[in-house]
Amino acid sequence: MEANKTTFPKRTPEEIRAWFRRAKARQQQLEEEGRKMYEEENRLKTESKQYYELEFA
Amino acid sequence: MKRLDVNLINLFSSYHVWEESNRFFFETDFGLKYFVDFTLDDNPQRVAYWFNLVNMSGEASPNDLKIWQTVFCVIEEFFHKNPDILLYLCSTKGGQQAQRARLFSYWFNKAGQQERYYFKTAEIKGEEPGSKEYIAIIIPRSHPQAEDVLAYFDEETALFNMMKP
Questions:
Q1: What CATH number is attached to the domain comprising B24?
Q2: B150 with B137: CB under 8 angstroms?
Q3: How many angstroms separate the CA of residue A54 from the nearest CA in chain B?
Q4: How many domains does one find in chain B?
Q5: What is the SS3 assignment for A39?
Q6: pTM: predicted TM-score of the whole model, two decimal places
Q7: ipTM of the assembly?
Q8: Residue B49's domain spans which residues?
Q9: Is residue B1 part of a domain?
Q10: pLDDT of residue B107
């Protein structure tokens, strides 16, 4: 579909750049949270395995 | 954002999806774990959400159709409950943003989603000199402001590319 001119109020280039930077920062924050959650899960799995091996092996 | 029904997602998704704190998790056959997050965009001109797909392990994923099939089930349920706009910024992890943009577009079209949604991607200048970012917009064809929103997206991405870093 060919897009025509929009009727939305225009933002300044600085506003657009700041908007993009906020989106990028949010993405990086989520990726960091995901990485930490994954590491924590792996740590718990390893500790559970070690505990099981010590207690029941 | 209206709450998504994870049971409806699981009716059709390839991987089992579960919800924790408004995030939608799934684990692949290859042991990789992902979550999907929707964040309200702060532009007051229209209601839009940023869609983020996070690969928690950060490991490269094999070509796994089931990931995309599952992601599209989440997106379908999102639009079912929220007839708004989705924005997607491809992750630059590993410098793979161009491939991610192509893959997302490929699977989106392959899944026949273009019958119901407009889907558009734009290449924009990254913060680092010479780098590129890819941004996409998905909007239901039934959205009352679809044409205006797409024009707005085009204008803003064009303006972004004209700016000096």
A1: 3.40.630
A2: yes
A3: 26
A4: 1
A5: helix
A6: 0.88
A7: 0.86
A8: 6-162
A9: no
A10: 79
Low-confidence ranges of chain B (pLDDT < 70): 164-165
What's the CA angle centered on B58, arms B74 and B96, to 5 degrees? 85
pLDDT tens, A24-34?
Answer: 999 999 999 99
CB contacts of A32 in chain B (<8 Å) are: none
Task: Determine the residue of chain B that is closest to A30 in CA distance.
Answer: B54
> Cβ B89–A24 below 8 Å, yes or no?
yes
| pLDDT digit string, tens, across residues A9-51 | 888 888 988 999 999 999 999 999 999 999 999 899 888 888 8
Q: Which residues of B101-138 are buried (b: 16+ CB within 10 A; e: fewer)?
A: bebbbebbeebebeeebbbbbbebbbeeeeebbbbbbb
Residue B10 near residue B24 (C-beta atoms within 8 A): no
Model pLDDT, residue A2: 47
Residues of A in contact with B163 (CB under 8 A): 13, 16-17
Cβ B52 vs Cβ A23: under 8 Å: no
Residue A55 in tokens: 């207690």
| C-alpha to C-alpha distances, A55 to A47, A48, B148, nearest whole angstrom | 12, 10, 65
Residue among B20, B65, B133, B111 nearest A37 (CA): B20
What pLDDT shows up at residue B164?
64
Q: What ranges do the domains of chain A cover?
A: 13-57
